[in-house]
Amino acid sequence: MNTYFIALEWLEKIMIPCFFKAIFHSDCPGCGLQRSLFLLLRGNFFESLQMYWATIPILLMFAFLMLHLKFNYKFGNTILIILYSINGILIFCNYFYKLTNQN
Predict the structure, then answer these.
(1) How far is Cα 83 from Cα 2, in angstroms, rounded to an integer?
(2) The whole model's pTM is what?
(3) Are the beta carbons of 14 and 20 closer than 8 angstroms?
(4) Measured between alpha carbons, how far is 101 from 103 in angstroms, rounded to an integer?
(5) How far is the C-alpha of 39 from the C-alpha of 3, rounded, in Å?
(6) How far is residue 39 from each of residues 12, 33, 48, measured CA to CA in Å?
(7) 50 to 28, 35, 64, 74: CA distances (angstroms)
(8) 44: which DSSP letter?
(9) For the residues 12-38, what does the mean pLDDT come to?
């Protein structure tokens, strides 16, 4: 078995539990992000999007943030504010969808 997949399996075993869900018995706005990230790392792109809509935009935002910190783009701050807003909207919509469609 590939070392990459062995490491992924180990990380999946030590995933951080959601304290919000443990206390309030309801999903938090971030519930699903870890599982979505693991699905993405395994190459399951569409399953990752179904699990948590904002995973890929969040990763792209952090990648742009790192580039902006390194190269200090002229309109980087404005672009980051737009990306933060888009991610906030996606997270809110995903949370609202999960709350209204829970079994």
Answers:
(1) 35
(2) 0.87
(3) no
(4) 6
(5) 17
(6) 10, 10, 5
(7) 16, 11, 24, 35
(8) -
(9) 91
